[in-house]
Amino acid sequence: MTTPLNVLFLCTHNSARSILAEALLNHLGGERFRGFSAGSSPREAQKPNPIGLEVLAEAGLPTDGLHSKCWDVFAAPDAPRMDLIITVCDSAAGETCPIWPGRPATAHWGYADPSAVAGGPDAQRAAFRQTLLALRQRISLLISLPTSELSPERLQGSARALAGGEHVG
């Protein structure tokens, strides 16, 4: 691969799971992958969850440049072309998505919302750590796939197989 594979992670508000996934892929993906994130309906003045940013920093992952944005940004004609779009929350998976330029592969990797965990900041912090670990495992499998599994013809099947924890390749 000469150009990186662009992966867009989607969630409803783009404040927790999709932000974690973007940071992880950009950290682990080397020159083969580039991660992005967006939300179907971020709230006005939405920002990444501060506990999520704290957990990322605690794990040694850069948080500079992470910000919440609407998925419409990536449907614009001048947006980076996505190769793979992964929804990471069930509500975003059920929504009608924009028509993405280039017809990228799609997959759903569902995770519970760590910011919705009851019990206060300590319980949420633990939930964010657990979500980060689960995302790290799946993203590690994605980035370890051979180039043949990342071809446009096979990418959707490969990414969807990872949702079920199957080993591909």
Write up what this structure looks like.
Keywords: Oxidoreductase. The chain has one domain (5-153): 3-Layer(aba) Sandwich (Rossmann fold), CATH 3.40.50. The chain has helices at residues 17-28, 50-58, 90-93, 121-143, 155-163, and strands at 5-11, 33-39, 84-87, 105-108. Strands 2-1-3-4 form a 4-stranded parallel sheet. It contains 5 helices and 4 strands. Helix 1 links the parallel strand 1 (5-11) and strand 2 (33-39). The two termini are 17 Å apart.
Number of domains: 1
Which regions have little confidence, pLDDT < 50, spanning 5+ residues? none
**Gap from first CA to last CA:** 17 Å
Overall morphology = globular
Task: Label this structure with key terms.
single chain; 169 residues; alpha/beta; Rossmann fold; 34% helix; oxidoreductase; EC 1.20.4.4; Arsenate reductase ArsC
Q: What's the structural blueprint in terms of helices and strands?
A:
Layout: E1 5-11, H1 17-28, E2 33-39, H2 50-58, E3 84-87, H3 90-93, E4 105-108, H4 121-143, H5 155-163
Parallel strand pairs: 1-2, 1-3, 3-4
Helix pairs in contact: 1-4, 2-4
EC number: 1.20.4.4
Protein name: Arsenate reductase ArsC
Keywords: Oxidoreductase
